[in-house]
Amino acid sequence: MNLEIYLIPAIPAFAAALLSVLPRKTRPAFYSLISSLSVLSSFALTVYFGFRAQKLVPFPEIASTLMPWIETADLAAMLAFRMDSTAFAMCLLVSGMGSLIIVYSAHYLKGDENPGRYFAAITLFAASMLFLVLAENLLLLFIGWEGVGLCSYLLIGHYWKKSGVPLAAFRAFFVNRAGDLFFLLGVFTLFQVLGTVSFTDMPLRENLLANPAVKEKLSFAALLLLGGAFAKSAQIPLHVWLPDAMAGPTPVSALIHAATMVTAGVYLVIRLHWLFLLSAQAESVLLVAALLTFLVGAVLACFQTDIKKILAYSTISNLGLMFLALAARMPAAAFLHLFGHAAFKALLFLGAGAVIIYSHHEQDIRHLKGILKKLPVTRGALWIGAIGGAGFIPYAASGFFSKEMVLHAVRAAQFSIAGENISGETVYWIVYAAEFLSIFYLFRMLGYLEAGRPDSEKESKEHDGTEIKETGWLMPGVLFILSIFSVFFGIISAPGGAGGTGILAGIESGDNIHSQPMELSALIVPSALSSIFAAGIFLLFMKSSSRLILEKLLDFSPGSRGLFARNFYFDDVYGFLILRPLNAAGGLAYRAVEAPVFLETLRAAGYFLKKIGRFFTVFQRGILNEYAFFILIAALLFVIIALFT
Amino acid sequence: MEILALLICSLVFLTMHLVLVQKERIHARLAVAFNFLYAAPAALFSLSAIFFAREYYFSFPELEIWRGFFFRPALYLDAKNAPLIFLMALVLPVAGYWLRASFENAAKSFHIASQVMVFGLTGVFLSDSLILFYFFWETALIGAYFWIGLFGKSQESEAPSRLKGPVGVLTRFFLFTLFGSFAMLVSIAALTAVNGNDMSLALIPVAVQSLSPELRLVSFAGFFTAFAVKMPLFGFHGWLRDTYVGAPPLARVYLSAVMSKMGAYGFFIIVCNAYHSLIAAAAPALQILCVAGVIYGALICLSRERLIDVFIYASLSHLCMIGLGLFSVSGPENGSSALSGTVFQMLNHGLIMTALLSLDARSSGEIYPVRSYPVRRRTAALLLLSILAGVSLPGMSNFAGEILILYAAFLTSPWLAFCASFGLLIGAAAVFRLFHRIFLKAPEEQIVESTKGDDLNLRETALGLFLAAVWIALGFYPMIVIGSIERAIYVFRMIP
Questions:
Q1: Is the pLDDT of residue A541 over 80?
Q2: CA distance linking residue B185 with residue B131, whole number of Å
Q3: Which of A467, A531, B72, B354 has the fewest Cβ atoms within 10 angstroms?
């Protein structure tokens, strides 16, 4: 039965329930202890399953069915879990990264007025994601899918007293729910066609594919499911919530970006890759959205001055890259980059969080000049993270081989949009060129943080005399572990030909076909080119004179005031096309229909009935003579009727 | 026999109120205790009907009331109506306890009216006789009539109203429902006339079969009007807002959580069962009506500024969803899962409205005099939890019912499902927006001084958490209810 598998999400879920009802006087350390221990035990359980499986490629599947969840004549879904290699790797990532981030939060949240809510939500976040990853069918996956949406809402809104924060949380929740509307319709379509939404059984119904009508419906279902995946994974046009989500505490951003929420969409498409292969439309939508997301994210990241916003747009860009690999029919590459990205993005966010905390909540890189000189561990972490994110040094950069895999896949692929063929080569060069943008924004950030000498006296005066330095051991410790992991990942992600084993790429595909050997020698020139570029950007932003010129250039570049500052007008378009018409319709429905027709008419009806009643009181005035008169008339009427009928 | 005991339970307490309690005014605690005494057997019998598929049946001696016309009163309890009895078992004590301050030292008539209503509601759900059904239906209405009429508060309506005060509210509510009741009376008269006698619910389809086509249509229209007004469905909801706002808080909860289910239950047990050919013929129009209601309710939510208004119209939306489930039936054989989902949804809607309306009454200053919403952690947290349950978060019970309904609509037409879920999305956004506006204000915008009863105390919170636990348990294992409902419906439809 493998009932232990249910414990993986159940332990954090129960811990979350416990944390949310603990009395308010509980010590903050206790919250973080329970929270991190519960997620850590999920990690231990996952590792236990790994040991039990003995070999990772191909991973022996572990499946367990607990009971029917919804089982009626029409719709049926089991409460069942399945752990295959993909789910196993995701579980490791979510629980491992999750517990590290929770430990980090223990320090980050020091002095917070409501740590209970935070730790309950973040534990539930991990639980939901683990549930999502392990769910055996699409409908069950939806529980985790909405669960992460809910937890992101709670966590992004953690500082709800600050203005704008509730709105950011609201947007994250409802953009996702809008995507989920399509997701659910996609699930319905799949169920209608295939009669099941189980991940195991669905691909087995391929005998139905001979029918072109079925194929068309499946293709439509793939498109609908993409709606959900785009919202979760912040793909254009549903990416608007992600930059706003920076309103939450920084560890939450790290968790959302590295391990939990945004990877869910990628995971879904990987899981249902057979379905997307059937749908040419879905693939072209995937390609267009992914390419746009990749470019828009990278461009916008270059114009941000808020350290968290830079990283947020960088995530959007990287997610675009993952979807690009999926559009190139190479889920293994997408999966590998998911991990590579997780490794460096968690590091970057937690490093940024350390900078923010130690600098007393300053997020603007222009005011954080030279701060890294006082924070040695954070400095190392941010450097490793930035190199990993820019991905130009083989083995040292966690994103190097994963990015190369994606580029490789894109180059080899043949795309088509609406029947028009586009060669992979074209897309490859676009992506390759845009990769320099990611080097630009990351090393621009580093350049600022390293530049010059911080005006320590002035700084310390501003912040009640406390000096900027790394305190405590939790945050530096977590950063240290993650740095090691990041480098380690850079090494093990190497594919067959480059001295590595290709094991990670193999985990997803279950074989080694996709991890083709890569010619390392061919990578030396682009790598060297990128390194020179990175060094150049870094040095230019270090020097105050050249930095000023570059900032002026950025400032006066076309679109920097309008297009880029307004994030390509997505918010405005949504406001104009959806929100304002809806609000207007709401007001109109009340004023034109509800009030006059339903409320007032009835009120008037009551009024008229009362009037009619008043009229009849004329006959009941209590005057005896009148009564006698009416009786006489009535008697006469009866007589007349009796006579004439 | 047990089932009779259950019915009598509600009556016994009524007589206790009348006879034993000699005081003019009754302590709220005593009334809440009565509620718990009612809830215990109700929960016991309904749960055993759901979990162990027990079927209770009790028939009174037949009674000849007109030359050869027999009145055949009988009561039943199985998985079809057990969810509704279970709903009452939860709603009465929970709402009573949460809102006890609103009827602290209320006059005796307050409790008598409420008990009459409870008696009527219990009877409606339990009765297995058409005439008995009507009798209890009217009893419940009479209880509600006096309750709202005597203890309702006057209307502070934005639109200038010519008829103010509780009497105005009452007139509207009563006219509307009376109109529906008379329509139903005509239908019942037609059915009993053709049958010659009173009949059990399972035999209504037979009687309907022997009606002439015109009369069938007329009787269908009669039932439809009565139930649609009571629920209410979109277009029949004119009485809804004013009545809810004008009613005392506890009455409002009973009306929304339980009394609206009278209409839904009537649709389910009489209309969908006996008139399925007519329903199937009218299904497209009815489904569109319901989906329009879902979207309409959500749009009105967007324009309202008070939580209670938003809850009322969101409730209209969800009742229209229940309607959509009821009418997504193309025949007796493949409509059952939508129907079982719908009955399940009645339970969920009742529980969620109980939480929403009670907590709103607690927090909006309706019971305790406060000028604004101060920071109230527990109330806000529980309200958020209830809202989440209401917007059918997967893993909570509402979701299981809702996807069954949506899927049934989807099978008819994907557009129906799309429009319905779009409407629900707007409604959810509106509720959240207002929740944010009211509860998530910076502290300086709030009046922080707290008075007694401002926030929920520990016991009240525990009660709320218990409700939440029910939602989550039913969310992960809805089959425990849906499965038995589905079996009961299957058997029920086999009888004729």
A1: no
A2: 9
A3: A467
